[in-house]
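Quick one before lunch.
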Amino acid sequence: MFSTVKDDMSIESTLISKERKNAKFPVEELTNVWDGGKEETELRRKIVKLFEDDPVLKSPPICTMTREERFTKATRKSAYIYRNLIPNNGLHPGSREFEHFSRAMPIENNLLVHMIAFIPCIKSFGSQEQVAKWLPLALNLNIIGAYAQTELGHGSFLRGIETEATFDKKTQEFVINCPKVSSMKWWPGDMGLNANHALVMANLIIDGKEYGMHAFIVQIRDLSTHMPLPGVTVGDIGSKMGFEAIDNGFLYMKNVRIPRENLLNKNSEVKPDGTYVKKASDRLMYGSMVNLRVNLPKSQAIDVLAKACTIAIRYSAVRRQGLLNPGGAEVAVLDYTLQQHKLIPQLATVYATKFAGEGIIKKHQAFLQNMAKGNISDLAEIHALSASFKASVSEQCTEGVEVCRRACGGHGYSQASGLPFLLCKITPSCTYEGENTVLYLQTARYLVKCASKQAADLPESIAFLVQPIQDMKGSITSLDNLIICFKNSAALCVQGVSKKVNEMSNKGLAMHEVWNKSSVQLVKSAKMYVMQYIIGAFVSFVTEVKCSEPIKEILQDLCCLYGLHYINTHSGEFLKLGVLSAHHCTLAEETEIQLLEKLRPNAVGIVDAFDFTDSSMESCLGAYDGNVYERLFDMAKLSPLNKEKVHQESYRHLRPFLLEGRDILEGVKSKN
Ligand SMILES: CCCCCCCC/C=C\CCCCCCCCCCCCCCCC(=O)SCCNC(=O)CCNC(=O)[C@H](O)C(C)(C)COP(=O)(O)OP(=O)(O)OC[C@H]1O[C@@H](n2cnc3c(N)ncnc32)[C@H](O)[C@@H]1OP(=O)(O)O
Ligand SMILES: Cc1cc2nc3c(=O)[nH]c(=O)nc-3n(C[C@H](O)[C@H](O)[C@H](O)COP(=O)(O)OP(=O)(O)OC[C@H]3O[C@@H](n4cnc5c(N)ncnc54)[C@H](O)[C@@H]3O)c2cc1C
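Model of the flavin-adenine dinucleotide complex:
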């Protein structure tokens, strides 16, 4: 319907090629560092290619589809992928292989919660017999399960959950009930339309006594007809800010009966006579959430920011607007220091959070090994670290994606840029798996407890909180001094708020009031604690990684930039704590600007090193060839509103006015 408009030679493509020629480091080597080695890059590319070459996985750009089409296509593709392309024994979240598959997944997919929450819960909460029964069925998609914890009335405060599982000794069943409207399960992914089972978190009741939240496997739909079972009301909660392809659902249960064996009973059991047997700490009930918070930030948030950076930096390298030299040619917007100041720190965030996250995954794996031997002494530390890490990463990456989107000007608002999709994908990561504020408070609770102990009684990674403040020797901009600066700040924040808590409670104020009145500072201290962890982990990575000098230099510069950018955007906090002087802050700002200038020529190379394929981004602004304008026009042509030259509804509703206008104009014409 539209004629083709093409430039003979796109200036934008030429510009981006020049950027690549100017890069001062081997891009492929940085890709290998990102992936964790050359072999890992090769393996990831093989997996991505397998997915991208598969004709079953092709579909139109998502911005041209309705929600219904997006859900349908995602379900078709996901069912196919999980049955045919994912290894039969599943993948372990946190493993490299899991990361490679998550990079290969189509831009929209579903059945994820089944894979990343339902299956892992069977493994962590089920006894050996239960795992043997449910796991093969779940891995084969013979049963599809949701993780049904949150209710209409309660998400954060799990002790307030209202769904009940009452033991009926006579029939040896649990009777599941949502006593009120607010008790219905609300939000779980895959639950509205696709799931036929749910891992329901409910309050266990035996002989009228409440035993708190436990995990039950509840069948919600018939396996042959897919109809909801008696007593079950289930459906999709409706359209959201994003996640169009996912059927986040509601589930209302009235007298739904399940066999006694469906209580996942590795940690606690109900005997046939109703005796309750506790086999492990109640805290392990929360283990599923630690698992998600440790293993998913990379695919949920860090990769999303990496994509947004790729789009915004490639676009900024070809978008020319305005003059730097009076009388000269128009410049790429990436040449403006202010554009660099928006975008290059986001690149630093991607690297910092990715390598710090790998450290947490290792810590968690060590914890799981100890737990298998019955030792859960590190649980509080890993909970505190993973809670604040998930909160900080989701927050930093969400803010970063919005910075990238706005940095693309008007085109960043277009779905064709891919950026609104990324923003809507990343923003709920601040809420799900634990709302960020609530998670920071959990970390702070642990830190305040630690602050009253002796260093020798604390885990090694926490002892600095109660040790003397360290002196910085030399420039604030050295990596060693950055670590000291963040550690000192975290220690002073925690000590400060602990003092406030103690003083108020010594004056006789009830603890819950003390806590509420201190919560602003508590959250600040948790944020500073996790920042010192991230900086420390990034510095260790940069120091230890084996790579060529130019790559090392880029990583060191990104690491320094990450720390300095945080200092410069929160300088008031550092000054208030007395960790930095005004002179330090001035130096930090100048050094940040110098680093931006130094990294600028490598910016396109650094995003190329993430190695995202064009089809994994669906972005007219971020494609490898830089051909932004032709792509935007081609995408506009696909808009469903452009199917007909005359849209029938515009014609129908506006025609009467137009006819009036035509008559007036013709009258004017004939008078003249
Ligand atoms: C096998 C798999 C194959 C996979 C194949 C896949 C292939 C790859 C394909 C793709 C991959 C793509 C990747 C993903 C891409 C992204 C897409 C996005 C997907 C979206 C997924 C969304 C999932 C979302 C799931 C959810 O949201 S589930 C719901 C989460 N809800 C919460 O987190 C609730 C938060 N609330 C709480 O945690 C608690 O209730 C509370 C806040 C801690 C309560 O506070 P309270 O003070 O009341 O605590 P108490 O209950 O009294 O407890 C007190 C003590 O317990 C300690 N505590 C608390 N929590 C924990 C814990 N978690 N662990 C340990 N200890 C804990 C607490 O500190 C107290 O201790 P004390 O000593 O101080 O007393
Ligand atoms: C896209 C998406 C997918 C989801 N998938 C699932 C799923 O698969 N399964 C599932 O079970 N759930 C799921 N959820 C639900 C999610 O886990 C909850 O929404 C989340 O845990 C937050 O709980 P809430 O909604 O009750 O928020 P609330 O706790 O009501 O938060 C509202 C506000 O109150 C504040 N607040 C709450 N408590 C405190 C406190 N103690 N101190 C200070 N401030 C406080 C919060 O900071 C926030 O600002 C999903 C949610 C979304 C958005």
